[in-house]
Structure formats: structure tokens, C-alpha cells
Design brief:
Mean pLDDT: 89
Structural class: alpha+beta
Number of helices: 5
Oligomer: single chain
Largest sheet: 5 strands, antiparallel
Order of helices and strands: HEEHHHHEEE
Distance between the termini: 67 Å
């Protein structure tokens, strides 16, 4: 097992995780991701990630597309802080997640970006007591 092989690394993670290469292609998909999002690895590997998960920010604005900010930050050597993202499941249901990023660099222009997903509960509306 090559320590820089994203498939080997992601395959060993029990939690939902996936990896994309420098061209946005899904190159690894964990069983945890299959369970959370419902997509089978064999059906989606090699496809652009943004076409599968269709991520949106907390305000439902499109986040994932051909101009991926995570990919652009990685290309520029910037670190990516964890962030919340809504992902589209195979059932079209929206899954709210927190995503942490790990970058595996083969060369400056060849890399894989591992996305570690933590499902979040839907936001609860706060009840503000009425006074007076």
C-alpha cells in the first residue's frame, strides 16, 4: 500500500471520506460515504466531484462547481480550514456536513485532496422567550 495512494488511505477510513485529484475527479470513495450519501464508488469514481455532490453553503448558494475554491486554494499552497457544506445524496436529500481537508502532494502540480465528512444535525430554531 502506497502511503500517498488516496484510494488506500480513504479505503482505510471508517467515516465518510472521499478524495479528488487535481482535475476534480473522484479518485477514492469510502464505505462511510456510500452509507451517508448513497452513491456506490464504482458508479462515480472518475467523475467530477461537483457533478455528484453538488455542494451548497449554509445559505443554499452553490459552492461546488468547476471553479472549486478548495482546489484553487490547494493549487496555491494555501491551507483549507474545515467548513460546513450541504451535500446532495443519491436520493436528492440534502445532508449537512462539516468537512476537513487533507492534501497529499505527489508533486507541486499533482495532488489528491481528501475530504473527511462529519454529518451534522439540521439546525434547530431557537425559541426566544417573549418578555413582558
Amino acid at each position: 500500500m502506497d502511503s500517498k495512494d488516496p484510494f488506500s488511505i480513504v479505503d482505510g477510513i471508517a467515516e465518510p471520506a472521499f478524495a479528488v485529484d487535481e482535475k476534480h475527479r473522484l479518485v477514492a470513495w469510502s464505505q462511510g460515504s456510500e452509507g451517508l450519501l448513497g452513491y456506490r464508488a464504482r458508479a462515480i469514481l472518475g467523475k467530477p466531484c461537483y457533478q455528484i455532490i453538488c455542494g451548497t453553503d449554509v445559505f443554499a448558494n452553490r459552492f461546488c462547481d468547476a471553479n472549486c475554491p478548495v482546489l484553487n486554494m490547494t493549487r496555491h499552497g494555501e491551507r483549507v480550514n474545515s467548513f460546513e457544506l450541504n451535500l446532495r445524496a443519491a436520493t436528492a436529500k440534502t445532508i449537512r456536513t462539516n468537512i476537513a481537508i487533507v492534501v497529499l502532494r505527489h508533486t507541486p502540480s499533482r495532488f489528491a485532496i481528501i475530504h473527511l465528512l462529519t454529518p451534522l444535525e439540521p439546525a434547530k430554531k431557537q425559541q426566544i422567550p417573549i418578555q413582558g
